[in-house]
Specification:
By secondary structure, this protein is of the alpha+beta class. The protein has helices at about 15-25, 55-80, 100-115, and strands at about 25-30, 30-40, 45-50, 85-90. About 45% of the residues lie in helices and about 20% in strands. α2 (about 55-80) links the parallel β3 (about 45-50) and β4 (about 85-90). The radius of gyration is 13 Å and the shape is globular.
């Protein structure tokens, strides 16, 4: 099983991210809200932590790293050959530990595949 997160899985096009937030399906599992749309060849991900909740970039980057690591370790086993574009938004007002974030990511990936 590969545990990589290559550049082709990074979602960076602003138009695609805008489409995800406006017309994408939503899945919520505290502390993360995810928007997703079925994709074509491989799953792509974007991560967001609002500046309104966490003023310091150090805290925002910590939370994005935790979400990215949870996706990297669980995407192969939970998604398989299912491809979609995901926007994961951290919505909690406090910093949660990695275990809570990983549990939320696992649940989100499972729910999105089942729909």
């Amino acid at each position: 099983m590969k545990f990589s997160f290559p550049k082709k899985q990074h979602l960076a096009q602003s138009q695609v991210i805008a489409d995800l937030s406006s017309r994408g399906n939503t899945v919520f599992k505290y502390p993360i809200k995810a928007y997703w749309l079925p994709g074509e060849e491989c799953s792509r991900y974007a991560f967001s932590v609002p500046k309104k909740s966490f003023k310091r970039a150090v805290k925002r980057n910590l939370l994005k790293r935790r979400m990215r690591e949870a996706v990297r370790l669980n995407q192969g086993e939970l998604l398989g050959d299912f491809a979609a574009d995901f926007l994961l938004v951290y919505i909690a007002k406090e910093i949660c530990d990695y275990a809570a974030i990983e549990a939320a990511v696992r649940d989100i990936l499972t729910k999105s595949r089942g729909v």
